[in-house]
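Re: weekly structure request thread

Next one in the queue (319 aa):
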Amino acid sequence: MEYENAAGRIYDIQGYAVHDGPGIRTTVYTKGCPLSCLWCHSPESPSFEFQMGYLPLKCLGVDLCENTCIKACDQGALYAGEPEEAMDGSGLIRKVRIDRSKCNECQKCAEVCINKALYTAGWDTDVDEVYERLMKDVPFFKNGGGVTISGGEAMSQFPFTYNLAKRLKDSGIHICLDTTGFANTEQFRQIIPYVDLFLYDLKQMDSDMHKKLTGVPNEKILENARFIAANGGKLQVRYPVIPRLNDSEENMHATAKFCKELGDAVTLVQLLPYHHLGTSKYERLGRKYKMHRWSPPSEEFMQKALEIFKSYDLPCQLH
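Done, posted below.
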């Protein structure tokens, strides 16, 4: 099958993924997303640009590396912190600190950091390079597993996503595409033959509220879900349950009714309880997580939500 070795920008490839579709999978995470969901737990994903991250635990101390990172920064954004005890008890060290107001994300410090305490979130690649990496995991694709292309929004890098799916399909690998559905319908028409299962997000049925929560209205998302269903695609719908934002009975009934209207194309509806496990990722990128004080829904509430979806005779489960 002919394909184009299209360029792409990704921020992670995770093996042994068991929550991104059936079986054991490897997930490719692309950078960039047109949505800006308030609860997003992957701050590396919305931006198409590289981002500078910092893991203080990995910093060996600026004196050991002779201030290499500080010298590399021509914006004056890096400086030595106050002395603190090294984790191995070897004495006092001064870890690098970042003035994010001066940082221009140039990545020069990450390029010279010897222990990768300073790192770049994201890298440029292409279909062939990612394909070769994924082939190493084929022996682990058990129980109907395979590859999931995720994001961000993978459809925002359509040439890369489309051609990667084509090449994987030609190798007989099961392919999932994790998508918000916010993309050109023609692009979905092109990619349907190469995707075995769409992991499809439905967040809020009221379009005005959807725009407040995610930055975009939902008409295109619903239209594309109908299009995929009508053109032979299979959907595993994912509904994140966010307290006080989309967890009303009215919204859950509307979502369940919509899923039912899609017919047999919906293989499963997953209810995903909100969590704030991504808070530390925001800290690494020097960003504040707006919903850090939000509490996850209770197990009792999730069971009630599950019953609402079950009442529509839908195949559903708690994630």
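The domain at 7-49+123-318 is CATH 3.20.20.70 (TIM Barrel). The longest strand covers residues 7-17.
Next request, please.
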